[in-house]
Amino acid sequence: MLSGQFTAAGNEWRRSRSCVGEGHCVEVSTADGGARIRMRNSTAPETVLVFDVAEWRDFLDAIKTGELPLTH
Q1: What is the per-residue pLDDT across 25-61, written as a single tens digit (0 to 9) for each?
Q2: Which of 26, 22, 20 is nearest to 56 (CA)?
């Protein structure tokens, strides 16, 4: 996984339908023809985490199984 400052202009960022207003929303987009998934916080869009497909699946699996607990 990469993290840091990336130019995100021109990318289509998506967020959950449950995210409303100007809240802290997770946004995702694809890059490199879908080979990479980018994730950022809508209130701090200059910092982006970049995953390859396998890393993204592992990340989601860790959340789903409770290995990586969600906190608010």
Answers
A1: 899 999 999 899 999 998 888 999 999 999 999 999 9
A2: 26
Cα–Cα dist 36/39, whole Å:
10
Using DSSP bridges, classify how beta strands 2-5 and 14-15 pair: parallel, antiparallel or unpaired.
Answer: unpaired
AA identity, residue 68? L
DSSP string, 4-45: EE---TT---EE-TT--TTS--EEEEEEGGGTEEEEEETTEE
Domain boundaries, the chain: 2-64
**What φ, ψ does residue 55 adopt, rounded to 5°?**
-65, -40
d(CA 35, CA 21): 30
Beta-ladder partners of 15: 27
